[in-house]
Write a structure and sequence with these properties.
368 residues, alpha/beta, Nucleotidyltransferase, domain 5, 2 domains, six-stranded mixed beta sheet, 33% helix, globular
């Protein structure tokens, strides 16, 4: 999975389903194909930007508003790129490519639709660096799920680790990459969305007027799980579907008028995320020896405790093996952008359900 085409450096950008903000990460690949992680930067969204993104989820708001928010989002990404290179005394011409995921506002692979806002051509013009964007469309058009896409990067990072291994990313939606033991054809891999991640917990906390998220899991730790309500949430056909499979951020919602206190609601929805991951184990080819957790969810002690109780293997943040959990997805899109330049697949039948290994992305050249 390593890249071998001379020393190159990419910037990966990620705006995830939690709508916290933008992560940027430098990733270099040397002449031998070895990866080297570089500088990182996070730029939170302000309240207005979050609200405007939230208002167009699902394609709502009309095309004029979507275009306006897309430009706003692109300019925010240009700001973080320019800040990253300036703060680290990097010349723009030393960056080979930017991997620009954009922000997903609609994901319906069952009808071959996915939409990420963000203008790659504008980002290239604003930064003076070539940009690869539109990572998911080709996969979805070919019949794949278009997600998750970080799995190939997980596999590259995990090359020297004991297998089988599961990498769990808990963003707004949670997804797992199961990596099996190497065989003659390379490592076996399966990836899919397990269910909600932080999204329902965040929505509940916001609905209760208690902020934007359950910081440090304080609400959940003070509450009690409503087992009946949890059972109703888990009674969803999605969990029985065979992978690969993927979700839109809004495929799961907080039940109407559940009668929970803020604390009990947070506890129940936190348990829902953890039990969803446990149900995903039914679809894995073999039990993982351990689970490595990335994404914002690993900062929530209540969720990490719930995952540890629900899964039959050790659960730990990815930092325990030296990975950068807050920037793994940004790094992944830097990695995928470099793969695009080499004409290599970005997704596999086992990671998105695409019929064959699939290239993807769209190259946007900056003006010389």
């Amino acid at each position: 999975m390593n890249l071998k085409n001379g020393h190159r450096t990419a910037i990966g950008l990620m705006s995830g389903t939690s709508m916290d903000g933008i992560d940027a990460a430098l990733l270099s690949v040397d002449e031998k194909g070895h990866m080297h992680q570089g500088a990182t930067l996070t730029q939170p969204y302000d309240g207005e930007t979050k609200a405007r993104i939230r208002a167009i989820l699902g394609g709502r708001g009309g095309e004029a508003e979507i275009a306006t928010v897309s430009e706003l989002l692109t300019r925010a990404h240009a700001d973080i790129v320019n800040n990253l290179v300036q703060q680290n005394n990097i010349n723009n011409y030393d960056i080979s490519i930017i991997g620009f995921h954009g922000h997903t506002i609609l994901h319906q692979p069952e009808v071959r639709r996915t939409r990420q806002i963000g203008d790659g051509a504008l980002l290239a013009a604003l930064t003076g660096i070539d940009v690869v964007d539109d990572f998911r469309s080709a996969d979805v058009a070919a019949g794949g799920q278009g997600a998750p896409l970080a799995s190939l990067y997980h596999g590259a990072l995990a090359a020297g680790l004991p297998k089988p291994l599961a990498v769990l990313n808990v963003g707004g939606v949670a997804n797992v990459t199961w990596i099996g033991k190497p065989s003659g054809d390379g490592e076996e891999m399966l990836a899919f969305d397990t269910g909600p991640g932080n999204a329902l917990i965040d929505d509940w906390v916001r609905q209760c007027g208690r902020g934007e998220m359950d910081l440090q899991g304080h609400l959940a730790l003070a509450g009690e799980v409503d087992e009946g309500g949890l059972a109703a949430l888990l009674n969803n056909v999605y969990f029985d579907l065979a992978p690969p499979k993927s979700l839109d951020r809004n495929d799961f919602t907080v039940p109407p008028k559940p009668g929970w206190s803020p604390e009990d609601g947070a506890a129940t929805l936190t348990a829902f995320t953890a039990r969803s991951v446990a149900k995903a184990m039914e679809h894995l080819p073999s039990p993982p020896e351990r689970w490595l957790v990335c994404g914002g969810g690993r900062h929530n002690p209540a969720l990490m405790t719930a995952l540890g109780a629900a899964l039959s293997a050790p659960v730990a943040p990815v930092e325990t093996v030296g990975w950068r959990g807050d920037f793994l997805e940004a790094e992944a899109f830097a990695y995928l952008a470099l793969r695009h330049l080499d004409g290599l697949p970005l997704s596999l039948p086992g990671t998105t359900g695409v019929p064959r290994p699939m290239t993807g992305g769209r190259l946007n050249r900056h003006a010389a």
